[in-house]
TrEMBL record:
Protein name: Beta-galactosidase
Species of provenance: Gossypium hirsutum (Upland cotton)
One of the GO biological process terms: galactose catabolic process
PROSITE patterns, A to Z: GLYCOSYL_HYDROL_F35
GO CC terms in record: apoplast; plant-type cell wall; vacuole
Coiled-coil intervals, chain numbering: none
All residue ranges annotated as the Glycoside hydrolase 35 catalytic domain in the record: 44-348
Family affiliation: Belongs to the glycosyl hydrolase 35 family.
Catalytic activity: Hydrolysis of terminal non-reducing beta-D-galactose residues in beta-D-galactosides
The gene coding this protein: LOC107932238
Organism lineage: Eukaryota, Viridiplantae, Streptophyta, Embryophyta, Tracheophyta
Keyword flag Ion transport: no
GO MF term list: beta-galactosidase activity
Length: 739
């Protein structure tokens, strides 16, 4: 019953047999041999049945456990079969050997909720995850293991990676969560988009890939492993495609199915960048195009993006919102018409499943830019996809005995080869309404506390002769590191007799920085996603005698992508010079510098109820506004109802926000989105530069306040503001459907 594509060569047959042997062996390891997951050239096979699988990424720490059941239910209602998630190592092992699997990091609970909903799980263990997540998911302590180099043929790294991967696999096994044990996990992923790195680093990369595949397979999960963006994924690991389109992807062996593990539903937002969106018509088109070309597994990255709470955002400069223009928005509400349109697409694909999994497509031309892909099985099932690739013209095509209207850049699906039940460019009107932020008219009553800049003689500071890299000192326990030194100015300096002060110049590896001279803010500089590095070069006001120079270097998320990104520095590495003195230019890099990790307010836990009562706050007419380095606090009662909540922070600059001691993330509405926001025609190849919004406005104005973090009354809201802002204009809003 197979057409020519299915005539297996003897080598592939042999490989298939080896694979079957491997499967038999791995299932033998478990006492429960009831369920199996395997694959062939067509599809993933679950319990003997080939399946077209529609999957969506939901990252458990990017929402709250209270949100999970509803997110999963909406994914199911949207027509998904599989939930895909990464596993976030740095969340699970904050210090070596000390594991954390509670609250938002309760992986077992998340997987079990997916199981209860009747969906499958694709567990992308990584443990490198990229994901715009801090340090790509690696714990920062890992960088300081002796002799380590990440993601290459390196002993200490491989040992650590294997230990964590085995820990997760064993945890899943102990809870019987693999499909072969009756659980929902049908697939696991090792590494992540390593192909491009391997290409760059060569031989050690190649042997690392082999090792990673063998190590993973050796853990005997009983379910297939995948490697995405890894053309040389060794058998039996399946290599899969990531991208905005994947229709032309072919796996590296004829006996592997064509899988698309990251279909980007939108794109992430960076502070300082415009907000990318992707039209629903184009996503639907890309998915239909993949399926019509023989694809059998599609994952939406992201189906729900969520929030980079706390300091989990990677980068540097990744925004707190990880909304991703996904079918379920950051707040857990369906995004229309995207969610509804894709649900219709999924129904059409599922109605065609019998034909799709049992036949290869016959492709015929219907015009210069039009094609029919027909799947006809021996048993009589027939499904057709009629495609119009023309970005400018819609056309009428003849197919079978019928005529079909194909809008430009669209695909119609005919599950019986006769009736077009869905077209990717035709969005039905039945989808529920759009959502908007609606202010809840209640003013907060604020109190303020001023964070003084410390000086080189600070008793808690560490003194070092010369400059230190930032993360080496902070170990990322805080965004903030103070670099402090004293500069002696002779009363005879020329500039003191009128004229400008000397020019202070330094270079920093990033990411943002404030300059304080004798307690006064004398400048703020920051980099951006394209270039986190920054230079400060400005006249500063110095006086005769001792001058206190305090530089606050600020990290905004550690890098998550790039070859050996773990070696990227942050902070002031020098030289630091003063130009325009009688002696000419003085290099102050090599003198004594004092270092202080974090803010005073952080050390005092001002974001908590007990901590916040440890200092004197002022209020009323004394309330400090538009001053840098200010802490604000207020208490409020929760609004009724159950709509998601957010804070409108547009009157503020940069800092961090906490509700009842929990960090809702970094705020940075002062970083205005650069670039141009042009037209957004759904037709034509999508890139993340197309269909952008928010240009000239804050990259992120609203910050999600999870409902489960607020109690009916007496909620403590704390804001730390670096730049200066007007807290009286911070507003609580609810996200709700507009009429
Ligand atoms: C620099 O710091 C070291 C170590 O704290 C100290 O012994 C030394 O006296 C300092 N030098 C100056 C010039 O202050
Ligand atoms: C190389 C790259 O950008 N990879 C990324 C693909 O998609 C998302 C971006 O949101 C990342 O998580 C991947 O790792």
């Amino acid at each position: 019953m197979w057409d020519k594509h299915n005539m297996l060569s003897s080598t592939t047959t042999r490989a298939n047999m080896l694979f079957m042997l491997w499967l038999l062996f791995s299932s033998w390891v478990f006492s429960l041999v009831s369920a199996t997951v395997s694959y062939d050239s067509k599809a993933i096979i679950i319990n003997g049945r080939r399946r077209i699988l529609l999957s969506g990424s939901i990252h458990y720490p990017r929402s709250t456990p209270e949100m999970w059941p509803d997110l999963i239910a909406k994914a199911k209602e949207g027509g998904l079969d599989v939930i895909q998630t990464y596993v976030f190592w740095n969340g699970h092992e904050p210090s070596p050997g000390k594991y954390y699997f509670e609250d938002r990091y309760d992986l077992v609970r998340f997987v079990k909720l997916v199981q209860q909903a009747g969906l499958y799980v694709n567990l992308r263990i990584g443990p490198y995850v990229c994901a715009e997540w801090n340090f790509g998911g690696f714990p920062v302590w890992l960088k300081y293991v002796r002799g380590i180099a990440f993601r290459t043929d390196n002993g200490p790294f491989k040992a650590a990676m294997q230990k964590f991967t085995a820990k997760i696999v064993n945890m899943m096994k102990a809870e019987k969560l693999f499909q072969t044990q009756g659980g929902p996990i049908i697939m696991a992923q090792i590494e992540n988009e390593f192909g491009p790195v391997e290409w760059e680093i060569g031989a050690p990369g190649k042997s690392y890939t082999k090792w990673a595949a063998q190590m993973a397979v050796g853990l005997r999960t009983g379910v297939p492993w995948i490697m995405c963006k890894q053309d040389d994924a060794p058998d039996p690991v399946i290599n899969t495609c990531n991208g905005f389109y994947c229709e032309n992807f072919t796996p590296n062996a004829k006996y592997k199915p064509k899988m698309w593990t990251e279909n980007w539903t939108g794109w992430f937002t960076e502070f300082g960048g415009a907000v990318p969106t992707r039209p629903a018509e184009d996503i639907a088109f890309s998915v239909a195009r993949f399926i019509q070309n023989g694809g059998s597994f599609v994952n939406y990255y992201m189906y729900h993006g969520g929030t980079n709470f706390g300091r989990t955002a990677g980068g540097p400069f990744i925004a707190t919102s990880y909304d991703y223009d996904a079918p379920i928005d950051e707040y857990g509400l369906t995004r229309e018409p995207k969610w509804g349109h894709l649900r219709e697409l999924h129904k059409a694909i599922k109605s065609s499943e019998a034909a799709l999994v049992s036949a290869y497509p016959t492709v015929t031309s219907l015009g210069s830019k039009q094609e029919a892909h027909v799947f006809k099985s021996k048993s009589g099932a027939c499904a057709a996809f009629l495609a119009n690739y023309d970005t400018r013209y819609s056309v009428k095509v003849k197919f079978g005995n019928g005529q079909y209207d194909l809008p430009r850049w669209s695909i119609s699906i005919l599950p019986d080869c006769k009736t077009a039940v869905f077209n990717t460019a035709r969005i039905g009107g039945a989808h529920s309404s759009k959502k908007a932020m609606v202010p809840l008219n209640r003013a907060f009553s604020w109190q303020s506390y001023n964070e003084q800049s410390p000086t080189a003689d600070d008793r808690e500071a560490t003194v070092h002769n010369g400059l230190w890299e930032q993360i080496y000192l902070t170990r990322d326990a805080s965004d903030y590191l103070w670099y402090m030194t004293d500069v002696k100015i002779d009363p005879n300096e020329g500039f003191l007799k009128g004229g400008q002060g000397p020019i202070l110049t330094f270079w920093s590896a990033g990411h943002a920085l404030h300059v304080f001279i004798n307690g006064q803010l004398s400048g703020t500089v920051y980099g951006g996603l394209d270039n986190p590095k920054l230079t400060f070069s400005n006249n500063v006001k110095l006086r005769a005698g001792i001058n206190r120079i305090s530089l606050l270097s600020v990290a905004v998320g550690l890098p998550n992508v790039g070859t050996h990104f773990e070696t990227w520095n942050a902070g002031i590495l020098g030289p630091v010079t003063l130009k325009g003195l009688n002696e000419g230019t003085r290099d102050i890099s090599k003198q004594n510098w004092s270092y202080k990790i974090g803010l005073k307010g952080e050390a005092l836990n001002l974001h908590t109820v007990t901590g916040s009562s440890s200092v004197e706050w002022v209020q009323g007419s004394q309330l400090v506004k538009k001053q840098p380095m200010t802490w604000y606090k207020t208490t409020f009662n929760a609004p009724g109802g159950n709509e998601p909540l957010a804070l409108d922070m547009s009157s503020m600059g940069k800092g961090q926000v906490w509700i009842n001691g929990q960090s809702i993330g970094r705020h940075w509405p002062g970083y205005i989105a650069r670039g141009s926001c042009g037209d957004c025609d759904y037709a034509g190849t999508y890139t993340d530069k197309k269909c952008r919004t928010n240009c000239g406005e804050p990259s992120q104005r609203w910050y999600h306040v999870p409902r489960s973090w607020v109690k009916p009354s007496g909620n403590l809201l704390v804001v730390f503001e670096e730049w200066g802002g007007d807290p009286t204009r911070i507003a609580l809003v609810k996200r709700t459907a507009t009429a």
